[in-house]
Amino acid sequence: MNTRAAAGKTFLFKMWENYPRTWKFFIDLGILLKYKTLNTSKIPNEIVLPSSNSIFVNSEENRGRALLISNGMTQKRLTNFWMKAVKDYSPDLVIDVGVNYGECIFSTNYSNHTHIYGIEANQDLLKYIHLSKEVHPNKEQMKIFNVFAADKEEEKTFYVDKHWSGTSSAAYRPAHDMIEQITVNSVTIDSIVAEDVTNKNILFKVDVEGYEAFVLRGMTELIQKSASALGYIEFNSEYMEKSGVDLNDFLRFLQEHFLVYIYCKNELVNGSQLSLSDLYKLFGSNYVHTDMILVKNIKQQIDIFQLALAS
Predict the structure, then answer these.
(1) Percent of the chain having pLDDT more than 70?
(2) I want to staple 80 with a disulfide (CB 3.0 to 4.6 A). Which of 89, 183, 307, 310 is the partner?
(3) What is the residue range of 165's domain?
(4) Which residues contact 203 (CB under 8 A, 6 or more apart)?
(5) How many domains, the chain?
(6) Neighbours of 267 (CB within 10 A)
């Protein structure tokens, strides 16, 4: 009963981690087919997104190259959700935790009243994030932080994945040897957001390879003060357990603060009453890798199902 989406994600993650050179071969093949060359000096580092905004990538790094091949749409479901949420929900505060190259945060334009925060722990990506910010119409409203978001301030070991930047993590060390181990300082989102969110609407995304529970606990004050909140998070049970998360506790935390919707078989399931064992039954596996939509007190006439399943 595994979903196609979950199975697809599982296969790709195992490929990246266990067979990096095989995966690099396929990425190189895609680049060669698209640009008729593997000469990096002849491969662009700018991608024009469907919104006409641009993002800049490292054309020598595999995830950057994958974005070039896919025209910046490696996570189509997330990007479409984000663009439609910005338009329909018109948030006062936007928080993107795990910016990577910024295909989410830079994918669309924002209202003049929106404050925009981008959080990325991998310092290798900052150059490209700032290039993308400088050409974005809302650049004056954007703040980029090179920090590791968590539930408290402390020093953390962070594994920078030189093979695939999207799997850099503090939750686990990938099996392959293309890893740079560094020390980073963790902070809470509550501590870096300067704006008063009382009676404000928050849109957020958290994709941090197993550390989602800690990030959300570190923004509890913002969530509680806000008038409403709409979030999109990745849920990877294996990575979360490696980072020390009690999955039952995390599900209870989510259900205390939000209505929880879960992607399953390309449909959206209301998970606000589901236990961990229910989740395992839903996916037919004790390994669950999917995305969740988190909703707090949204009173506008927004159809969550239509929003989440936008194509």
Answers:
(1) 90
(2) 310
(3) 4-308
(4) 82, 85, 86, 89, 91, 93, 94, 95, 229, 230, 231
(5) 1
(6) 11
